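Project outcomes to date are best conveyed with an example. Our students and postdoctoral researchers have been running inverse folding experiments weekly, and each run begins with a structure described purely in tokens. The record below, which covers 172 residues, was selected by the lab manager from last quarter's runs and is presented without edits.
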């Protein structure tokens, strides 16, 4: 008697399989939260990607002249690899989901601003913490603490290879 796996791999069952690719690429915003992770994002961006957009920093500005009856509004900007400043909210809106990367021990509190933009458009936020050579468990815990409240999935990723495999699995 054949097992279920053996039966599903049979030539007869193969005739029922769909021969087209199972999915289209996703648009993914990959955002570095600190200088150490910006170098990692820059290195990863040189690979062949179908739908990933890479950003090396996040900055903020305030509207000096708010419209009458409105409070002073803070705007967040993402800097892409070419150095252009792009509106965070617009980039999140056109992405299928957002991946944030931080080096363990670095200040990752800016993730809350990105999470607010994701919440506006019901986009998932995935967090990756990258331990460095001299990183302690306490440093990793601090970074995880910043990302945990906002991330749908949170991973301690050991090395650039792991990040590339993860982005590939996410169909970037």
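After processing, the design step wrote out the following sequence:
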């Amino acid at each position: 008697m054949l097992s279920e796996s053996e039966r599903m791999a049979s030539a007869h069952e193969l005739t029922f399989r769909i021969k087209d690719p199972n999915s289209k690429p996703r648009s993914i915003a990959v955002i570095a939260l600190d200088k150490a992770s910006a170098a990692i994002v820059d290195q990863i961006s040189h690979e062949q990607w179908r739908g990933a957009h890479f950003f090396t920093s996040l900055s903020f500005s305030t509207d000096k002249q708010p419209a009458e009856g409105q409070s002073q509004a803070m705007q967040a900007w993402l800097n892409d690899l070419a150095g252009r400043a792009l509106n965070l909210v617009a980039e999140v809106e056109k992405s299928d989901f957002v991946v944030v990367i931080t080096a363990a021990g670095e200040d990752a509190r800016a993730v809350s601003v990105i999470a607010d933009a994701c919440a506006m458009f019901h986009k998932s936020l995935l967090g990756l913490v990258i331990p460095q050579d001299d990183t302690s468990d306490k440093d990793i815990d601090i970074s995880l603490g910043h990302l945990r409240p906002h991330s749908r999935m949170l991973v301690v990723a050991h090395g650039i290879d792991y990040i590339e495999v993860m982005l590939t699995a996410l169909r970037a």
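Residues 38 and 56 are 5 Å apart (CA to CA). The beta strands are 28-32, 52-62, 74-80, 85-87, 97-103, 124-130, 153-156. The training component of this project remains on track.
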